[in-house]
Amino acid sequence: MTTATRDSAEVHDHTVQDMRAINDVADELNRARWIFHGTFASAHEGYGVLLEELRELETEVFKKRERRDVALMRKEALQVAAMAIRFASDVTPIVKS
User: Fold this and answer.
1) What is the spatial distance between Cα 30 and Cα 78, in angstroms, rounded to a whole number?
2) For 80, how many CA atoms within 13 A lie in the half-sphere containing its CB?
């Protein structure tokens, strides 16, 4: 396999992983909106929810490598991403000019 072919394969693998993560974030965002109806009441509430999810990820990341639960880390990372999108959507909606 040439370097160019290997690089292309690696890019493809990362693209597939990225698309799966994006789809998983969308699923998590939909799940959260279904469970917690409505929008964030304020920027403070949205920030608090996002910070809580980030701290849950931090708890897992800061464990010794051999004690980390990779599936839980992924779950928490997806929740951080979903809440960041929700914050952007609820608190800073696009204003049409």
Assistant:
1) 12
2) 14
Look at residue 37 in the predicted model and tell me its pLDDT. 85
Q: Which residues of the chain have pLDDT under 70?
A: 1-7, 11
Q: Rounded to whole angstroms, how far apart are CA atoms 20 and 39?
A: 26
pTM: 0.82
Q: Look at residue 37 and give its three-state secondary structure.
A: coil
CB-CB contact of 29 with 86 (8 Å): yes
Of 9, 8, 22, 5, give the one whose Cα is nearest residue 78.
Answer: 22
Contact 89, 38 (CB under 8 A): no
Neighbours of 15 (CB within 10 A): 10
